[in-house]
Amino acid sequence: MRLRTALATAVAAVTIVPFAGAAAADGGGAPTGWHDVAPRKAVVATLPAARPLAVQLPVCGSKTGAEFPLATKIHGGPAEYRAGDGAQSWYLDLTNTSHEACDSIHPVLVLVDRDRTLKNSQLQMEFSDPATGRKHPVTFVRTDEDEHIGVFDDGFPGFVIGAGETLTVEVRLGFAADTVPGPITANAAIVQRRGSNGQWVGDSGDYRFDVVDEGDLLHQIDNELATTGRGSGLARIGLAAGVLLLIGGALVTAARRRAPRR
């Protein structure tokens, strides 16, 4: 991932996209009921990719300096998502390391798939506001570099995080059945909105995972092992025997079909 470029795009997105939410602009349009209010080119055109990092450093409360005021971590996410199998949960920790409250905080998720085949319309994502319990949809902008930018903002005013406190946000992410299998890297930028402007106030480490085909037998077996316990010798033997029986049965059936009739 071109991390600095992608995160700079994310800051631009949360700065210029209206509170109605970010656009889903990859030709497929946004899912029903989701907002589609900003064209992709408008976001890319405002990309501050050449801006020095020092200019991007944050203002949160009254804190300024070389350290981001929010320590940010993605955790609890699965290593695999099965295409078409519904959303799965992971969590985003936002820790305020400054001495004053940080308000108007908007996470921005940056997704990059290895093969650059992912479409906005194949992404299904929402986050929960811990203060209200309300779920908010996230829509995506696709950049010219095939990065997918999802702004946590559908009219949501942003999170408020007290000095020295940690806020944990649940995020649910899923992929449509026609998603091409392969590895994806996710990273969260954290932006503080100030009117029509935004300041980059934190970013997470990478979260890497794979999207797998819903009919992938080997991954089904792996999931079964995870459920029954990888240390169970009987489970391993039973699953291996089951696979051999399935393969053997298929070979016998194929041989019978090919055998000439007497």
Share in helix:
10-25%
Largest sheet, if any? 8 strands, mixed
Mean pLDDT: 73
Which regions contain 5 or more consecutive residues with pLDDT less than 50? 18-58, 230-248
Pattern of helices and strands: HHHEEEEEEEEEEEEEHH
The counted number of beta strands is 13
Shape: elongated
Q: Report the C-alpha radius of gyration, rounded.
A: 22 Å
Class derived from helix and strand content: alpha+beta
C-alpha termini separation: 63 Å
Strand content: 25-35%
How many helices? The count is 5
User: Which oligomeric form is depicted?
Assistant: single chain
Structural summary, described in words:
- By secondary structure, the protein is of the alpha+beta class.
- It is built from five helices and 13 strands.
- Strands 2, 4, 7, 8, 9, 11, 12 and 13 form an eight-stranded mixed β-sheet that branches. It has a five-stranded antiparallel β-sheet with strand order 1-3-10-5-6, with no helix packed on it.
- The longest helix has 26 residues.
- 31% of the residues are buried.
